[in-house]
Design goal:
Layout (H helix, E strand, L loop, with lengths): L13 E3 L7 E3 L8 E6 L4 H16 L5 E7 L3 H11 L5 E4 L3 H5 L7 E5 L5 E6 L4 H15 L2
Helix pairs in contact: 1-4
């Protein structure tokens, strides 16, 4: 895991909602809650492999840890098919120009950023995560959120 962002504030973002273009998805709407931010693209094979695990863990921790996806440099139709096929129910921001990835200094996809309730980064992981890895990190966020 890449700890170079640990303790820094999560970069603010405001993106059109993938499913409903009249709405936005932004960091501020998750203020005060632990948050998992997952950057992905439909062209990323490892993203396709990890997405069902993220969807399952998000459902398991609903109400305790928030999840948001950020679709990076994609087309809306392809991304909509992808989230439907993988069972993702959490909010997804649509970022066809990849500007949010720049703010988070991404080095590759997928990248998952685990953000404490106070808005600071607990850990950033570049590369695919297994279901057990997602569970471990989300459990750590949930424990911190109960303090």
């Amino acid at each position: 895991m890449s700890g170079d962002a640990r303790g820094t504030r999560a970069a603010a973002f405001s993106l059109p909602d993938l499913r409903d273009q009249s709405r936005t998805v932004d960091l501020a709407q998750f203020a005060g809650r632990p948050l998992v931010v997952n950057f992905w693209s439909t062209t990323c094979v490892p993203c396709r492999q990890e997405m069902p695990a993220l969807a399952a863990v998000a459902a398991r921790y609903a109400g305790r840890v928030a999840f948001v996806g950020i679709d990076h440099e994609d087309t809306r139709p392809a991304a909509l098919r992808f989230v439907s096929a993988t069972g993702v129910q959490y909010p997804v921001g649509f970022d066809p120009e990849g500007k949010t990835a720049d703010a988070y200094r991404l080095r590759g996809l997928p990248t998952t950023v685990f953000v404490r309730a106070d808005g600071t980064v607990l850990v950033r992981h570049t590369g695919p995560l297994t279901r057990d890895q997602v569970l471990d990190e989300v459990a750590a966020l949930a424990r911190e959120g109960q303090r």
